[in-house]
Amino acid sequence: MQTFTLFTIPQAFENQYDLMQWNAIKSWTLLNPKPDIFLLGNAPGIASITNELGLYHIPNIDQKSSISDIAKWLDRLVNNTILVYINPSVILTEDFAITIQDVYNNQDHFFLTGQYRTVQTEGAIDFNDNQWQHQLRVMADKQSLPQGQLQDVYLVFTKQLLKQLFVSCEMRDATGNYIQDGYNWPVFSREKLIGAMIVHHSRMFRKRDWLRTTGFNEPLKNAVDFDMFLKLSEVCTIHHLDQIMYAYRWHGENTSIVHKTAQFENHVQVIWLALERLGLDKDWEVYSPDKENIRKVAFRQKNKVG
Q: What are phi and psi of 25, to 5 degrees?
């Protein structure tokens, strides 16, 4: 069985969060094989439960850090291929580890979210009772509380995905009202990227891969991110998690709106630069069939003299 590293940032072990988090974290220690469990942060009670259950404790973590930042930092400490971020109140049963193993047996790299069920328990769960998992499921069936599928409950992913990852977004206006889902190309494609910016705003990538590029093209006024992610796509694998995980606000002063002409012109320019880096500019050129929308580009072979 493939072992994995599980990490979370608990709240203070006080009031309703005390037993709720204890029940959850205790259930993680009973998985087979037992994962490496990291509790992050300095909230009251973390050090105590870490000692009680024989876990790893990393106190000096900024709780405002993103999951991707923490995962990349943990990557330097752990050897396991699979990382799991989990909400500290989620109880796991043996099916969780079995499912991860089944996916890993068929996919070298993956990113998983999943469903959860809400259940109200009274007091500490008797984990010495061999029927505790069955009893918990029966309790959940009887209570019929809400269930769902939220990205912040748990995320399971292979370390390979820490090379570069981006997600989907929704558009909101200046006051935060929903407008529409953002433009979305579901599966990453280098061929699609070289003609259209499909790597959305919320991204993570390795410093190692960044250093394999020439970095930002600072003279560019707009389309700087498009240029940068074209460069990154040339040196590493990119994955798209097709989940809406952030809101992009259109407030009217966005650079892409205020400097629309420069945005469109630089869009075409950075594609030319990509063709040059790839050695394709000798045979191919980019052009804009629609003069009213020069950002919509196509490619054609250059005329050759035989």
A: -65, -35
Q: Which two tokens stand for residue 294?
A: 């020069």
Cα separation, 202 vs 66, in Å, equals: 11
Fold held by 4-159: Spore Coat Polysaccharide Biosynthesis Protein SpsA; Chain A (3.90.550)
Tell me the C-alpha distance between 172 and 47, whole Å: 41
The yes-or-no verdict on residue 149 having pLDDT over 50 is no
Query: What's the CA angle centered on 205, arms 243 and 170, to 5 degrees?
Result: 25
pLDDT in tens, 215-271: 999 888 888 999 999 999 998 878 787 777 778 888 878 777 777 888 888 999 999
Query: What's the fold here for domain 163-301?
Result: Spore Coat Polysaccharide Biosynthesis Protein SpsA; Chain A (3.90.550)
Structure tokens at 53: 């259950």
